[in-house]
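In this section we walk through a basic example: taking a raw amino acid sequence and producing a predicted 3D structure, encoded as discrete structure tokens. The instruction is simple. Fold the sequence below.
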Amino acid sequence: MLELLREVGVELPGGAGLLKFGMAPGEILEKLPPDKVTRHRQCLGLTLSQYAELRHAHDAWLGGLLFEPEWNFDAEFDGVVLGFGGGGPGATDRLSRVEIRTRTRQGGAEVTPVAWEDIDLFGYPATEIVAVLPGAAAADGTPPAEVTVAELGLRLSRTDPTADRWERVTLLGPESGGWGACCAGGLVCAEEGDGLVGIMY
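The resulting token sequence is shown next.
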């Protein structure tokens, strides 16, 4: 089980260790088993300095589109992929964002449970998850493609709004304060932010 810990970080499965908010990229890599790590090259993403407006960079960061050279790696544990991000301007070298997404597994193999206070965020229908998370209630009992629970530092999303379950969870820690010049809150960007600006030509 992979456990999300509010304002602390992520407890890796199988006793692999605790990834704490505020850690540097090298410290994270030391905790990750080498055979679980994949490094990525810059492709469609832009770096922070390439965005003309901070709000666009923040939206890209929240959506996993911002390319951060120091954080160009992810790790996979049995069908669950973890991506990592720094804390924005002035804090790019400190872990402040962990994105967990599910990957389809062949043959119906089990996926590592991702738990928030013993709730498997990918293991139950999205409507049931929304019902038990404080402040995440959705109108008419049907959750939208994305739900933000600011008080928990959680953001749940899915590419297909009709999908039964959540596909991605983003956990933000207190180290995301570098985005303060853009937004008052770590989970909500300024009006009209657009992380795709400058990426799609």
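Looking at the output, two observations stand out. The radius of gyration is 16 Å. The chain has three helices and twelve strands. In the next section we compare this with other chains.
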